[in-house]
Structure prediction request, 383 residues.
Amino acid sequence: MKRKILTIAAIIFLSQQVFSQDSYLKVEAKDSLKVYPGGTKYEVKTFPQKFKAKKPKNVIVMIGDGMGVAQVFAALTANGGNLYLDNFKHVGFAKTASSDNYITDSAAGGTALSTGQKTYNGAIGVNTDTVAIKTILEMAEEKGLATGLVSTSAITHATPASYIAHQGSRGSYEDIAADFLKTDIDVFIGGGYNHFAQRKDGRDLTRDLQHNGYQVLRDMDEISKVKSGKLAGLIADEHNEVYPNRKMDLPLSTETALNILSQNKKGFFIMIEGSQIDWGGHANNTIYIVNETLDFDRAVGKALEFAAKDSETLIIVTADHETGGMAVVGGDMKSGMVKGAYTTGGHSAIMVPVFSYGPGAENFTGIMENTDIPKNIMKLLGL
Ligand code: MG
Ligand code: ZN
Prediction:
């Protein structure tokens, strides 16, 4: 009798387990966007690790917005086990908290990376008292280096804006666009045309840009043909489309910008952003995340190609924060299938990876504050 009760209890217990596991699987299966099924892979080149100088002449900062270790590993799996990021032999982690929040947004995260100061969520290039702080791009410019910004979002969006604008609030897109005119930046490529040309104040800043000697272009082919001079590439009206539908090409924009900037004998500073890894994370969409991270990695490949040849260029690849609280819960290195799981639709607090390559790369290892990254670059460039 005792045995019978135990058996019945066991059956009830097991059937509930089976039911709950099944219903769990059904939820996962319905949400097909959480599984990247595998797709086209690209070959990753290996670059030399020997450099001419001890200190860099040029610095390329690449920000994968929302790119944590899970996003990197998902992309690595999708590409069959390798990424251009494999060339980075110096790796560390950055803590990303802002001055007022355990979890940063892209404005405070961008400002920490552009100025070396922690500030409040929403702040663009200003401190906790909303006073403008000089950014590393502005310092580089003052020292005679060429400067650039490339982004797959609007060029006025939080991450690129943090390097060039000073506004109390990230949503002030038209004021951020106007701040571009207060600088002497050499090359910028992204979206955000309307913030320059379709403004509430009726001004057309693209005319001012032209007056200041910029080639203002909206077509990717035309942009990619620019070899010298000042360039304002404003491809989309607002944000560029999702990969692969966007007209803006991140690897090609990277190559174009580096070729123009490298003509400056004194060196250059550029920030290049893969903006939409973050939006894939907000959507808990593994396909979106993988496509955007792979696109970003191919841009890293273009930067490596330049730096390996140049031998005086430091590349730092990092993130402003992680998005989605993503975990990789399944995958196959052969097919490239990878399955993501998510714990939030927002950002998470976890440390982000810091990859560095080139002269001075050894300064960016271990656990650091995100603000240590620009501080170290400033030291290396003598800013
Ligand atoms: Mg961003
Ligand atoms: Zn975000």
